[in-house]
Amino acid sequence: MDQEAVMELKLIMPIDRDARGVSRVSFDGEPFEERRGPRGDVASLSCRVLGLDPDGLTRAVPPATTDPAASTAVYDLWEHLNEDTRGHLVRVGRLARDLARHMGLTAEEQAESGLAGLLHDIGKLGIPHEIVAKAAPLNLSETRLMRSHPETGARSLGAVLGPEVLDAIRHHHERMDGRGYPDGVLAGKLPMVCRLVAVADAYDAITSDRPYRIGRSPQEACRELGSAAGLQLDPELVEELIDLERRRLGARAA
Length: 254
Known about the structure:
There is one protein chain. With 254 residues, the protein is mainly alpha-helical. It has one domain: Hypothetical protein af1432. Helices cover 54% and strands 3% of the residues. Strands 1-2 form a two-stranded antiparallel sheet. The longest helix is centred in the middle third of the chain and has 20 residues, at 83-102. The relative contact order is 0.12. The model is unreliable at 12-28 (pLDDT under 50).
């Protein structure tokens, strides 16, 4: 058992421990049942929140290498997240899942994309809230701390997730021009799931309210993604996401 990984997950758990019972929660129009009390693991969390087929999770959450105690610690961590954090993770996880499905990727790749999106910002939970929620520009030391979250998240989840999901969590802020973090690698050389989660995360960041600005409309977000294609984001994946959102907007208007 990887006690160090379990302890790190417990150390970054935010304090919000009073909620009980069962409620219906929706952050993006797709509700799920939010249970408090009975303990689960990452696989059950993925099925409950993302609606993933358990048979497609064997690569994302490998049974042979997953530490049960660490997996339960991740589930407990999720159960104690505040609503804003959980909302962002749910939306990115579902958008990554839907984008993978829209592109015709395999069930395994859909599960990896969705789960990576659902857990991509776990590393931020060890950063003081006043830094994460700061409206003014971050200073150098705050920026360095914020930029440590992908690596922290991947390291903390190493005993739970498969390598493709861990790679996506670590590299979701890498850029096509190599000017991202934490490793400054060319995103075009990274696996598909890494680049896909980066696009889903960027879209939700643009459309969500932030301490320093109000979220933009889906149409504005698509235009902004288009301007970031090639330098920051994978242009082919940006085109796929824009096509997905146009289809969704058209379906809502019909």
